[in-house]
Amino acid sequence: MNTKSASSLKVIVASVVIIAAVLYLAISGARDSKATSYYCTIGELQGMGNKAYSRNLRVAGNVKPGSIHRMGTHASFVLLELGKELPVSYDGAEPPPDTFKDDAQALAMGHLGRDGTFQANQLQAKCASKYAPAKPGDKPAASPAAGTTATLVVPAK
């Protein structure tokens, strides 16, 4: 094989590898964009009709007190938002977070099942008591520096 045909063959092989890599990235990017999840409220979810069954969704609300049933990495509960309820079945790789408790704000990611139960594969939660607003008449917690003042001393010339 002469040098010209050997270098031509290398260019052709390199071009084929580059084109294959670009095609792979385009196809995997298109597949990932279909997995995009849309945020919606419980009310919006209930009004979506058949579109709700085919989309990946994120739904937030407060966990209804007494509705949590845990079984290892699985949990079922009810989300509340503005008087509307959504039953949720979580089945993830990890158990629900420690902050997942009654009245906690939770964000469930997954899809709506035909039975009306939201099938979550990811779950995030905030601690309800930590972020609750102060009750009227409650005094704010004292910080270590509470009650101290600082004085600036300027030396005399």
Automatic annotation (TrEMBL):
Major localization listed first in the record, in broad terms? membrane
Q: Where is the composition biased (Low complexity)?
A: 140-151
Query: Which terms under GO biological process does the entry name?
Result: cytochrome complex assembly; protein-heme linkage
Q: Where are the transmembrane segments?
A: 6-27
Q: Which UniProt keywords apply?
A: Cytochrome c-type biogenesis, Heme, Iron, Membrane, Metal-binding, Transmembrane, Transmembrane helix
Q: Subcellular localization, per the record?
A: Membrane
Q: Give the protein's recorded name.
A: Cytochrome c-type biogenesis protein CcmE
- Species this protein is from: Terriglobus roseus
